[in-house]
Amino acid sequence: ELTVLRKAQEFFQICDLEGKGFVTCQDMQRLHPELPLSLEELEKVFVTLDADGNGSLTPKEFITGFSHFLLEQIALKNDMVLSSEGETACPVRYEETMSGDEDEEFHFSNLMDRLGATKVLDDETDVKQLWLQLRKEEPNLLSNFEEFLVRIFSQLQEADNEKNELECALKKKIAAYDEEIQHLYEEMEQQIKKEKEQFLLKDTERFQSHSQELECKLLSKEQELEQLVQKQKRLEQECTQLLSGKEETKVENTKLKLTNQELLRDLERTSHELSLAQQQLQVLQEEASRLHEEKEMEVYRVTETLQREKSGLLKQLDFLR
After folding, report:
1. What CATH architecture does domain 1-76 belong to?
2. Residues near 291 by Cβ (< 8 Å), separated by ≥ 6?
3. Residue 12 in this model has a pLDDT that exceeds 60
4. What is the dihedral angle through the alpha carbons of 39, 45, 50, 56, rounded to the nearest 10 degrees?
5. Which residues are within 8 A (CB) of 116 and not within 5 positions of it... i.e. 6 or more apart?
6. What angle do CA 178, 180, 181 make, to 5 degrees?
7. pLDDT band at residue 93, thresholds of 50, 70 and 90?
8. Which residues pair with 177 in a beta bridge?
9. What is the pLDDT of residues 107-123, one digit of tens each?
10. Residue 76 class from Cβ within 10 Å (0-12 exposed, 13-18 middle, 19+ buried)?
11. Domain spans of the chain?
């Protein structure tokens, strides 16, 4: 039974090479080179062991069920051997001879190897002393002690398998959590980038609209100035024509002078307005430059604020992790 249990544990490790903590029907096919069973027979054995029908076997289900299966196979073979006359005495005597001649150290080491104690115990001295004492003083209790060791190491193996399952589940949760953190980080980066672009676009549109308005006003003033210049030239031509006439009257001349003075005043007023418009345009340009600098400072402050919020969120995410 000790050998069968140990063999079942080895078979489970062969099937579960990935360390999943369970065995599927496909994993069971890896025992084909180890056992004189076909793939179909191995599949039938898996179906028999999978009592709950969930498609997988835990270490306890596999080791317990497969141990029973191996013991049944051994019992069948023993029955076949016992049915043949004269074939039992020699093996029994051979086994008794071998047991009597075996060295205690070899027997104990073999027992520890079957139980897989080297994976669990760092020091086997205490167990060895107790085993030797029972072997010498109470040999009738030795089998009970070995069965007790089988149960203990089987439970330790199950605990180790459960620990591996928990570690695997924990790794999956950590991976999922890291993926969620990365997703949140990317979303935060996209949000910061989007808000920054919207802020810059809105401020740029406002500045362009103000500039276009100033350009329209300047163009209108230039058109008015051009019209006044053309009017002045036309009046000067009329004045020249009147002065060159033979029958010029004093009233008409005075009227023309007054008109000319009025036009000069209009021209002077228009020139003054144009100068004021140019000054206003310069002031507006300076204001636009100042607004642009304020916009850059505001963008810098907003970016710095977003960066601080981002750092705060990252710290919170690190704390949560």
Report:
1. Orthogonal Bundle (1.10)
2. 207, 210
3. yes
4. -30
5. 6, 9, 153, 157
6. 65
7. very low
8. none
9. 767 766 666 666 566 66
10. exposed
11. 1-76
Stretch (H or E) spanning 20: none
Q: Which residues contact 163 (CB under 8 A, 6 or more apart)?
A: none
Helix axes 104-115, 2-15, angle to 10 degrees: 40
pLDDT tens figures, 242-288: 777 666 677 777 888 888 888 888 888 888 888 887 888 888 888 88
Tell me the residue type at 183.
H
Assign 90 a pLDDT band (cuts: 50, 70, 90). Answer: very low
Tokens of 60: 């306890």
Q: What percent of the chain has pLDDT over 90?
A: 0
The CB density around residue 74, as the number of other CB atoms within 10 Å, is 13
**Helix/strand/coil percent split, the chain, to 5:** 85, 0, 15
Q: Which two three-digit tokens encode residue 271?
A: 């020139």
Task: Determine the pLDDT at residue 92.
Answer: 37
Q: Using one digit for the tens of pLDDT, what is the confidence trace for 284-312?
A: 888 888 888 888 888 888 888 888 888 88
- Tell me the residue length of the chain: 321
The amino acid at residue 96 is: E
The span from the first CA to the last CA of the chain, in angstroms, equals 48
